[in-house]
Amino acid sequence: MILWHNPRCSKSREALALLQAKGVEPEVRRYLEDAPSFDELKAAQVALGVPAIEMVRTKEAEFKAAGLSRDSDDETLLRAMAETPKLIERPVAFASARAVIGRPPERVLELL
């Protein structure tokens, strides 16, 4: 299992703790330091099975500053997340070809 993680985020820390409590030690990727590429974000979107807007933190100042809106197309949103990883909703857990956004954090347990 892989977890896109931000240690400063309480929800991300909680998701990691839930996995560890179940005996799972995911490969932790600190996505703010090791930003996913456009192609990785596109693959994540496929694994999540959601429109790109559901992967975006729309309340971040960077969302508005980049000229984005809830009507922006998927490619535009994915490129924005690749350029500004702070826009990626977190945490994101991956197992095999499936993924979930850990909102609420308990959702990561769906992959076990």
Automatic annotation (TrEMBL):
It comes from Alloyangia pacifica. Keywords: Oxidoreductase. It catalyses: [glutaredoxin]-dithiol + arsenate + glutathione + H(+) = glutathionyl-S-S-[glutaredoxin] + arsenite + H2O. GO terms for molecular function: arsenate reductase (glutaredoxin) activity. It is an enzyme of class 1 (oxidoreductase). The gene is arsC. Gene3D superfamilies: Glutaredoxin (3.40.30.10). Belongs to the ArsC family. Its EC number is 1.20.4.1. This is Arsenate reductase. PROSITE patterns: ARSC. InterPro entries: Arsenate_reductase (IPR006659), Arsenate_reductase-like (IPR006660), Thioredoxin-like_sf (IPR036249).
